[in-house]
Design a protein that fits this description.
2-enoyl-CoA Hydratase, Chain A, domain 1; 2 domains; alpha/beta; globular; eight-stranded mixed β-sheet; 33% helix; 15 helices
Length: 478
Amino acid sequence: MSNRSNNLAEQRICRLLDENSFMEIGSLVTARNTDFNLADEATPSDGVITGHGLIDGNLVFVYSQDSSVLNGTIGEMHAKKIAAVYDRAMKMGAPVIGLLDCAGVRLQESVDALNALGMIYEKQVMASGVIPQICAVFGNCGGGLTVVPGLCDFAYMEADKAKMFVNAPNAIEGNYVGKCDTSSADFQSTETGVIDMAGSEEEIFAQIRELVCMLPADNTENGYMEDCEDDLNRACENVDTMKGDPRFVLSEISDNHNFLETKKDYAKSMVTGFIQLNGLTIGAVANCTEEYDEEGKKVAEHDAALCAKGCEKASEFIQFCDAFDIPVLSLTNVAGFTATKCSERRLAKALAKLTYAFANATVPKVSLLTGNAYGSAAVMMNSKAIGADLVYAWPDVKTGMMDARLAAEIMYTDADADKLAEKAKEYEALQSNVVTAAKRGYVDLIIEPADTRKYLVAAFEMLFTKRMDTPYKKHGTK
């Protein structure tokens, strides 16, 4: 490691990695271009510090942009250093972590700088599905550089000072910073679906360290597993008291009650993240109808419906899990689709992406019905019809085409209230009861909520050696 103790870019690396584990590579690289008096500028490391180190003993490769050197702008040598980080990471089978603080493409290098930015894109695409890619934005990240976090698997953003934008807020017709700061961490984490979490630098580093310790180093590890000290048969006595909030359910069933949520502020009616069962990392996708705070008070409600943003969020997450052999667990509590003009513009395509992601994934897939599971929305949420290996349900679940009362009203349009009530009761007994679904083989087992953890542990243990042949194709089209 160099002795640039006052360098912010290097300080960030040291705070992220295990103490004294960082080994810098390419510290003597400087800019080659001499146009526009660039030869007179000092460009130590060409504005980016690169190397490798450890996170809880796990090898990672890191690059950190240095805003004190030409504002951290990307030039030819700057990009070649980042590209070299990717090459080494793919050879060694280790995650790449990028710490972004950049004013954009270096104007003095023009086409060389543009080509350099393209080199970074290419390496990211080549590494996609091979090694985990993580980044965090601490300063500026504008224009074409926003593609970098967009191509990463997980992206974070410092809440107060970081700015991320394709077009600056004031450059958008009818907008300005005071009206809507589209470059802020709040906007990016809630509206774009790129940012997994906005917080302080320390919160971001803690989250990245936790994430690295739950992910496989590359796509050859067959998922990630560590020793489990939690009771595999631990009863989850109160797991159904807040069943509308899957964060609570997932925390209750996970080893040591640990749930790491991704994109937590985006599309809140769909929850994604990681848990561990018997030490095995599991990707979780869940419908969310309620949110509770740490004191157990309800703070928000959501429709039991699939929305476009939620489907896109879930499908990307499922594809990541499938690429890295991480099994998938779904918690289903859904009754239909979001009915708004805005959502309708892209809902069909988003639903197709969700359905495709679940059906196309070859990893172990388990579905747990925790609430109502009505209509084609329930089919899309990892049903047996599209490839779930096992489907479990809690006893009070209602499943079928739709709510029994609504079904009766459609079938008996001229009936009086008493007749409708009678037919609704009959429909619920015959068609909406989860026992009916189990009798037809669509649900494998009805389990008590308190026993959820032990059944899921056993399910994924049985599915650990799952192998699946699929028809030959270069790749799918969704």
